[in-house]
Q: What sequence folds into this?
């Protein structure tokens, strides 16, 4: 009983509904991850870039992460990870929410479809980002399925009639992954995050339970590889080296998409990137619309898009 009360408290701590979001002319982006680190990892740099231009970004963890540690679990861990996610969002200049669903137990139910649909509607999203529905983790897969299932329903008036439907279907995007079957990720959009790379790393240092303690599958030996908590600058450098490789590989792997959106010269110079694939459900944007949705892309030159 105590576990469930603590989990509920963790969720309520930062859940910030925006059922009556005002239209101020800025973009509204909602990013879904399965756990309180997934959206931060996959979209944190791009989220920071939108935020710097005054656009509104919300990072949603669909589960509370309450088994994502090799020592602790339950409400104690859910509350801790909720606070970590909130701190990352604060540093990036965005909003966060962690849903009260147990880690490892997410299912593509009608109830959860309604929850996702309401969140997209309440945020009045122009862009929705989520995992692809092919992944090693069932929670990741089912986030992808649930968001796909919401891609049509967000405009249907009598589905969740308690929440006004969207007038225009958002653009639905997948975040990148390495999985090859049934088909590999294709980068339709790649974003240079060089200007916010340090900010992203600094923000991710707040995810202590995951990045410095190793999450669910680590162990005592993991801690021997990480600088101690008493040396935060060394910890940040350690994490920066890891993300130098990770975000650097993203830029290398999706160089052609970077060149498409930044031009040959600038695209070749990009060191760090985040990449996205356009879901075939939802609105299908033109190149001009993509530039409006990603307003930090440079003006196109004579190169063909």
A:
């Amino acid at each position: 009983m105590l576990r469930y009360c603590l989990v509920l408290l963790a969720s309520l701590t930062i859940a910030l509904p925006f059922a009556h979001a005002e239209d101020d002319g800025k973009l509204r982006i909602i990013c879904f991850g399965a756990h309180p680190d997934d959206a931060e990892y996959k979209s944190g740099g791009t989220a920071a870039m939108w935020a710097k231009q005054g656009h509104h970004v919300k990072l949603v963890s669909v589960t509370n992460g309450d088994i994502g540690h090799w020592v602790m679990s339950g409400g104690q861990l859910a509350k801790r990870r909720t606070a970590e996610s909130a701190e990352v969002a604060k540093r990036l200049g965005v909003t966060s929410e962690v849903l009260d669903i147990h880690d490892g137990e997410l299912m593509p139910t009608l109830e959860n479809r309604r929850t996702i649909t309401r969140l997209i509607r309440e945020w009045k999203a122009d862009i929705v980002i989520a995992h692809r529905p092919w992944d090693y983790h069932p929670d990741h897969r089912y986030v992808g399925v649930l968001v796909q299932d919401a891609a049509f329903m967000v405009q249907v008036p009598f589905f969740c009639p308690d929440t006004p439907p969207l007038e225009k279907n958002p653009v639905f995007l997948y975040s990148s992954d390495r999985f090859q079957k049934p088909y590999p990720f294709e980068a339709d959009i790649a974003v240079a995050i060089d200007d916010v790379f340090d900010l992203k790393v600094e923000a991710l240092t707040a995810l202590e339970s995951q990045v410095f303690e190793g999450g669910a599958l680590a162990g005592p030996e993991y801690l021997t590889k990480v600088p101690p908590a008493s040396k935060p600058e060394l910890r940040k450098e350690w994490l920066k080296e890891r993300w130098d490789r990770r975000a650097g590989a993203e830029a290398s792997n999706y160089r052609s998409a970077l060149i498409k959106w930044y031009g040959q010269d600038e695209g070749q110079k990009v060191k760090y990137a985040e990449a996205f694939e356009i879901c075939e459900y939802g609105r299908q944007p033109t190149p001009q619309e993509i530039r409006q949705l990603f307003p930090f892309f440079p003006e196109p030159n004579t190169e063909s898009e």
